[in-house]
E2 ubiquitin-conjugating enzyme (Lactuca sativa), 417 residues
Amino acid sequence: MGSSVAERYISQISKYFSLSRSYKWALVCLGCVYICGFVRKRVFFKSSSASKVDNPSLKGMKKMHEQKNGSTSSKSTFSSLWLAKKFLSVKKLVKTHPLKKTSSGKITRIEDVTLNQDSRKIKKSSNVVGTSSNIKQHGNNEEVLRKYRKFKKFDIVEDYSDHYYKGSNSEKWQPPRNWAKKIQEEWRVLMELPDTIFVRVYESRMDLLRAVIKGAEGTPYHDGIFFFDICFPSDYPNVPPNVHYHSGGLRINPNLYENGRVCLSLLNTWSGGKNEKWRPGVSTMLQVLVSIQGLVLNAKPYFNEPGFAHSRGSANGEYQSMIYNESTLIYSLKTMVYTMKNPPKHFEDLVIGHFHDHAVTILTLCKGYIKGVEVGCCVNRGEKGANGLGKNVDRYMRKLVRAFTKIGVKNVKNFAS
């Protein structure tokens, strides 16, 4: 019976395609494969039904499978015809163009060349998909800037897992009632922040806070963004908050150490007069942030060091300050790259959006520094910095351009040339 079925299929296909005798054997193989598969399915389901017929759930599955087979029986015949036609088209192609030389001079079957072309198309398509996913991750420029401009200066969030002081207390810790009331008062004050400071507090950890401060124009920190983690002790406000700077291992200021320590009179971590130190009931968290921005991240941080403050205004003091600013600028540029690679939680949109918005300005300033503009000044001195600033900035600009490009900033590659 199997042979008669095969002959009938071969006869029908031969009449339809007007095949020569040499191709009939190929169709015999296809017919045999179809028949073997059909017989194997019948034997399998017969044995399965004999051993599992008492299982009602399997009966239902069997019925569904039989209905599916019935609906696809006509499709199997069509598939056989389609395979035969496809086989003939390939044979005709091989007969017409049996061999082809590749660019390397190697003789290759045309099927292999076709497969290679298809694989290249697939690979190219995969690259496009990867690029699209990257764009989706950061969004296009308009989308990034939209999120950046809508970024709230103050907000309450949940996840504090990357906070420096996350282990200082726990969610089960019950603070004194007056303490919680004071923290809520601080929150209300922080809702009216200047445009260059952003804060996130944590609903389940009222003792934690994170702030970012933008570097002011006219300083070596211009257009940089600097992160600080804050913890309110249990006896706050009788004592100042604890503040940790995200340094990335760089000391960009005499008051900001590589280990994150912040030295400031208002925090009682540095010497100062009575009115400069923390005053319970008077000093606030907002004052701390504004002091860091104005007194620490200033135009001439060299004079923050008490031992050098007396030289302010002297020729040697101003020269040393200029040298310090040049080194600080490089550290500030490195901090930018570090921050783009490691944006703190809840500030990702701010980091990406800020550098999308300011990348061209930052690189234009770097070009000016290479030409001799003094750091923190708009006047061209017409000479290179004493520490080889131009060469250092030029070398680091390439890293900046790569970092900007990686987050999706456009029109910056020409700055690397």
Remarks:
- Strands lie at 99-101, 107-109, 154-157, 197-202, 208-214, 225-231, 242-245.
- The radius of gyration is 36 Å.
- The first helix runs from residue 2 to 17.
- The chain is about 55% helix and 10% strand.
